[in-house]
Amino acid sequence: MSSTYRIVAGVDGSEGGRRALRWAVEQAARLGGTVQAVSAWTWGPTEAALLSGPSRDAMRAEAEAALADAVRALKTHEAVPLALEAVEGRPARVLTKAAADADLLVVGSHGHNRLFRAVLGSVSEECVRAATCPVVVVPIPREEPAHPRELVGTTSR
C-alpha cells in the first residue's frame, strides 16, 4: 500500500459524477489521502462529426469544464490535495488505468441516460469488473413519487 491513500474519482458532468467526487473528497479528508478527479472524453472522427460535430479540442474543453464545475460544487476541499485530469478514451478504460495503482476508484451509479447505457453498457459495471483496486459506486438517491401508490387488496374481517 502506498504511503498516501490515493482515490481516483470519475467525473462526467452528471449528478452521479459530482456525488462520486464529493464522496471521494470526504473519504480522503478522513484518511489523510489525495483525490485524482478524472474525466474521460472521446471524439469520433467520423465524416458526420467532422462536418457538424464538436472538434477534438471542444470535447476536451467540455471534459475539463465538467471537472471544474464538479470542483466548484464542493463546499470544502481545501484540506484534500486534488488533481484534475481530462483524458481521451473510453471512460471505464481511462478510469481503471488511472486507478491501477490507486487504493480506491469511486464512480457514480448513473452518468448518462438509459439509451446510452443500453447501447454502450454501464461504466460503473465495467469498472467493477476491470479495476485492480476496490471500487465504490455512489448511488443517486431515488426520488419518491409525488403520489405514492396505494395498495389495493382485500381486508379480513
TrEMBL record:
SUPFAM superfamilies, A to Z: Adenine nucleotide alpha hydrolases-like (SSF52402)
Cross-referenced Gene3D superfamilies: HUPs
Lineage top rank: taxon: Bacteria
Pfam family, one: Usp
Location of the UspA domain: 6-139
Entry's family note: Belongs to the universal stress protein A family.
Protein name: Universal stress protein
